[in-house]
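Lab notebook, bench 4. The sequencing result for the construct came back, and we need a structural model before the next group meeting so we can plan mutations. Quick request posted to the team channel:

Model the 3D structure of this chain.
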Amino acid sequence: MNSYYQPSAELLQAFGFAAFSAPPRQKRYSRASACGQETIVLYEDAELTLLEVVNGQMLYSFQGRVASEAEFRVLLRQVNWSAELPSSI
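Done. Here's the predicted structure in token form:
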């Protein structure tokens, strides 16, 4: 049996993502980026999609599954998204 990982709402919020409304069987989280907006869509079947809007143009970054939080963070880095939690003061 395959086991896939999806980031929790708490982890995404720690990364600066905010929850937004989504169609049934989806959860959407977005955050501002230096030149647009980054969005993660989580699906009930454990797939996720990374979407990015840059200067008003929608770019497709990734759709698939990951096996762990470490793999999720690597994926974020591969598409040049911040994968570090802010340090607490």
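The CA atoms of residues 4 and 67 lie 5 Å apart.
Will bring this to the meeting.
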